[in-house]
Each structure stands twice: as structure tokens, then as C-alpha cells.
Design a protein that fits this description.
Layout lengths: L16 H19 L5 H20 L7 H16 L18 E3 L7 E4 L4 E5 L30
Antiparallel strand pairs: 1-2, 2-3
Length: about 150
């Protein structure tokens, strides 16, 4: 049935910007987890917990919607450290102890995974699978091998 304004009852309403930010964050983090083969059900539950927590946060500070992706990435990273170990491991450094990538900016829009030891951007959050970064830098191919992000450097 159509409404007087011409919209159909079954038409989806325009998504709330806060919900859109949360759904985008969830999708990007799940994509990174899947790219690194760690998207097990218990890990997906960690993502859901982080999104739930950040929903409250962004409702209190709607201007922070642009920051939700990086915050959810950090929340998941912290939860994984407690339960499973460091994630995502740095694909750039092949010497020394394995270390996790960091999220930069810590509180800002357009978050990236970075190797703080080497000082390089590895990928945008959501692009650990490679290719999504394009030619902006090493993120699409952090190893310079033409292989996927996260592959062992040759």
C-alpha cells in the first residue's frame, strides 16, 4: 500500500546516520577478521559486543560517528588480546618479535592499520584483505610482492 507521499509501506526508511556508522564499522572489522582467518563465531561475538558498547557511546556523542570504526577496531583488538592474542599481526616486519598493528588515528575519521615499529600504513581499517586501498600506498600490497595483505614477506 502506498502512503500519500508516494512511499510504499515496504520501502526501507532512510538509515539513521548513527546506525549506518555502526553497521559500517561492523562490516569493516568483520572483513578484516575474515581476511586474517580469525572470524570464528566467538570472535564475531566480540565484534557484536564492541558495536553494542559503541552504540551507547555514539548516542551520547553523535558528532563522534566518524570515529566509531576506529574505536570498534581498537575494542575488538583489546578483546582479542585478552582471549586469543595479538591481532592483526604485522605483515611488514619480518624480524624481531611478532607484534600487532595499531589503529591510527586513535580517535579520528578514516582509521588505518599501521605498523608503529616501521612507521608505515598497512591498510585502511576494513582493507586488510588487500586491493581495497588502491594505489594510495603500501596498504594494498604491504609486502611489495603482489600477494594479499598479511602474506609472509618474501
Amino acid at each position: 500500500m502506498d502512503h500519500p507521499d508516494g512511499d510504499a509501506d515496504d520501502a526501507e526508511p532512510a538509515a539513521d546516520p548513527l546506525e549506518r556508522a555502526l553497521h559500517t564499522a561492523r562490516a569493516l572489522i568483520l572483513g578484516d577478521l575474515a581476511a586474517r582467518d580469525v572470524a570464528d563465531p566467538d570472535v564475531v561475538s566480540l565484534v557484536e559486543d564492541a558495536v553494542t558498547h559503541r552504540r551507547w557511546w555514539v548516542e551520547q556523542w553523535p558528532e563522534g560517528a566518524d570515529y566509531v570504526t576506529g574505536l570498534v577496531a581498537q575494542d575488538v583488538q583489546d578483546a582479542l588480546l585478552e582471549r586469543h592474542g595479538r591481532w592483526p599481526l604485522c605483515p611488514v616486519c619480518d624480524t624481531g618479535d611478532p607484534h600487532a598493528l595499531g589503529v591510527e588515528p586513535e580517535l579520528g575519521a578514516d582509521p588505518h592499520w599501521v605498523c608503529e615499529a616501521a612507521g608505515v600504513v598497512v591498510a585502511r581499517v576494513g582493507a586488510l584483505g588487500g586491493g581495497a586501498y588502491g594505489t594510495d600506498g603500501p596498504a594494498g600490497d604491504p609486502n611489495g610482492t603482489g600477494g594479499p595483505a598479511g602474506a609472509d614477506p618474501a
